[in-house]
LacI family transcriptional regulator (Salinibacterium amurskyense), 708 residues
Amino acid sequence: MARVTIQHVAQAAGVSPSTVSNFLNDRQGRMVAATRARIEAAIAELGYRPNRAARQLRNGKTQTVGLVVPSVGNPFWGAFAHEVEVAALALGCSVLLCNSERDPERERRYVEELWEDGVRSIILCTSLPSLDHVSHVIEEGLRLVTFDRPAQPNDPQSVVSISIDNNVGGQVATAHLLELGHTSIAFVSGSIRSVNRSARYRGYCDALEAAGLSVADMPQWTGMDASHFGDVEAAEVGRAAARDLFADPTNAPTAVVAINDMTALGFCRGLRDLGLKVGRDVSVIGFDDIILADLYDPPLTSVRQPITRMAQLAVSEAIERGSNESTDPGSSVLLRPELVVRESTEHVPSAARP
Amino acid sequence: MARVTIQHVAQAAGVSPSTVSNFLNDRQGRMVAATRARIEAAIAELGYRPNRAARQLRNGKTQTVGLVVPSVGNPFWGAFAHEVEVAALALGCSVLLCNSERDPERERRYVEELWEDGVRSIILCTSLPSLDHVSHVIEEGLRLVTFDRPAQPNDPQSVVSISIDNNVGGQVATAHLLELGHTSIAFVSGSIRSVNRSARYRGYCDALEAAGLSVADMPQWTGMDASHFGDVEAAEVGRAAARDLFADPTNAPTAVVAINDMTALGFCRGLRDLGLKVGRDVSVIGFDDIILADLYDPPLTSVRQPITRMAQLAVSEAIERGSNESTDPGSSVLLRPELVVRESTEHVPSAARP
DNA sequence: CTGAAAGCGCTAACAA
DNA sequence: TTGTTAGCGCTTTCAG
């Protein structure tokens, strides 16, 4: 059977194509109930489904929302992508998924391509300090929602940001360790050259200082070089950090704040390589609270991001704004992270006490 | 600046639009070198990019490949989606991602919608015994590649399947446990109502029988009911299985083959709840070899699926077939799984020996 | 070897 | 309140 078009529906309903089009586009006020009913019936009977390509060609836009994540290979982003897809589906949209590998150039290319393909709403999971690489598209009218990156002073007006308050997250994580009696706490991250990471780091510093401790006195791990930017390697970073930090036992921390759960898990693995026991010997706390945090042995203490809620927010900002104007453009939504205490953090080991 | 169309290019190159179109569609034999060069120059100068919507409207197809996975929330599928995206990118295609939650109805709807939207190539990660729910679209010309589901006798001719040989996988896993001296080996799965799962189960049975053991003598876990079909809950399944199997210690296994790594990890977690130690007390083996298998404590023995290779195959079958006709339609590619031995499997504990 | 013209399915002026 | 019409940007016969 051939494709059924708006013409067929019009014919079957005894009206003109434009009336059907009006019907389809929620301008039903413009027609009398009987007409509406006839169109409805015709659509149902013929099993008509509007052709997206034609619609897009005509309107210059899709019903698709673009989602650019660092990498779905990382369980956190996989879970987030999943939530985004669920939320978008509820609003009748599909999701075009792209992995940026945290490469600014790939981010730019993807955003541009999506734009060229008629995608007018993009959720960009980036944490680059600047949005310059995509600002020209924003100026043309792209509705951009950044995720995991609070708004920065120089961001274009129209951008909305969804993220947790990473500074608070860093503080909460560190404070938890301090309360357990730790005074030698390292911060482990592949690179803190991104706004959310540096916010977490600042939270860590703030908490330390509030406790009268100096960051300079903490065991330092200078991380891997910037070329290891991908999220797939997050676990590798943690593992390397464990190896390096404990190479000199006199300078080894009793606790660690990891930039995310994958890094934390990698760190735990590294500890294991060294014959150290997570919790008993070294406390480890991560960020994100991915499913695996609870599955791990020992279950990992983590700072939870409420991804379901965040995905809903991101999608509704991306899709519905313009019609709803629910949030002020240029604003940041900063959700409160939640500390989930499990067994990877324990009181400072007695041997290390004064 | 306004959109640059094929017209502009034509004008700039001093030719007609149709010539440019010919150029674009690799019919360059139809024009003299000088013309070609002028068009190339014009495209470069104007920064022309063809409009996909128009192209699609005209051709009735996209450059997009649809990917339907059970759920990117499961790290295995996240990793696979990532590999697919990489492979597609290399071929100039984008990926439209859909989560079926293993619901046949959602699978059907997604496949239909993708088709309606002009997507002509779909990688469907399903393990439903029948493809009936999408066969009408296949008849209309959909290029379908199934993943994780070997071809079945009644499948439409044109379908190509990519998967590992799950039967062999099940055998290898079980044989490994047998070699370690285990004789009480349970099989843990949420449901084996899918072709790949039942193949793994059969492999398990085969190996047992080859060793002169009877499946009926093994501790049985009858799984959760079919409503728990999602991949997100895989870990829950494992955890529940551990609780149930060890409720009656006289009937507890010394080793377990889990249907996948997430279930295996959940099982390990369940063991921990019971104060049992993975490896020492109970050996656990999973399937997939997700990144986390190596990160876990103890690192998980697993049957690896070569996802990078599989993703490449799936994408090239989905996109390039028709031009290439590389593989016979209707065929199955069955890759060999690889046993990765780590520390979650050990010799049968002495207490359990005769 | 290249150009002119028709039309894919839909929408938004504008007319009636 | 509904119909007519003119394209959106591209490809593809069919003439030149």
Notes: The longest helix of chain A spans residues 75-90.
